[in-house]
Design a protein that fits this description.
Helix content is 23%, strand content 27%. With 140 residues, it is an alpha+beta fold. It has a domain of 88 residues: Aldehyde Oxidoreductase, domain 3 (Alpha-Beta Complex). Helix 2 runs antiparallel to helix 3. The longest helix has 15 residues. 23% of the residues are buried.
Length: 140
Amino acid sequence: MLAPKKTKHRKWQTGRKHPDVLQRPETRGIDVSFGSFGLKALTPARVTSNQIEAARRALTRAAGKGAKVWIRIFPDRPITQKAAEVGMGSGKGDVAGYVMEVRPGRILFEIDGVPEALSRESLRKAGTKLPMKVRIVTRA
């Protein structure tokens, strides 16, 4: 699973959950830069490192050996969780994993080196592993 090697702050504050802020389109990472085809997010979501790894596995297995795959997102935000059946209070829980907050328009994965039909099918399979609506886009 993906996780940062070292962080300045072990636990982050929760952050805003207002729909206007979440629906605001992404401004960085919105173009297919490395490969021929990409997977673009259409809805906001928090993608965990497990979900990124599951999508990467589905993508590489479906595409085969000749494909080159780029992962354009990295989970650097820590998520905390208190243990089961623990009462309220007594501080914040331990870090349970890392997520990436994805807003609409962000390119998640890119692929190159295989035919278009195989690229689209493998990106479609990877998109089913993610907790958001996605679209397959081509290089402009």
